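To: structure subgroup
Subject: Chain for Friday's discussion

All,

I'm putting the inputs and outputs inline so they're searchable in the archive.
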Amino acid sequence: MQFRNFRVLCFDGYGSLIDWENGVVDALLPWLHDAGITASRKELLECFLEAEAAQRARQPQVCYLAVLKAVHGTISEYFGVPAQAEAATVFAASIRGWPLFSDARGALAYLREHYRLVMLSNVERALMAPAIERLGVRFDAVVTAEDLG
């Protein structure tokens, strides 16, 4: 593959630039700890992924904040913790602070010098905005699930 043959690079925000796994675990572990529950990172991520996939299949048009709130309820049920609307809201809001991968900013700055950059995401624009700001690079286009309906 010859990179000089490309003019545009597309990135999936969550998973490629934003470390959603650590974001999810960091948001859920303190809540579980407060409930007296011990869970491994692997178990927590598997539970999250299963709950997210099921929620998306049930309601594919729902905004991602609502998906995260519903996923929190499923995770609560899985671990036998009473569901709490406030905890679900806090978990959903945590997406705005999920960490960037440590090399994302520098890599994007370098790539920006040579390519047009496009961000793709399955979340709505309002959730992508803080992440894009933290990435510190201008994207030529941002395409979200919200844009595509």
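Points worth raising on Friday:
The mean pLDDT is 93.
DSSP finds eight helices and three strands in the chain.

D.
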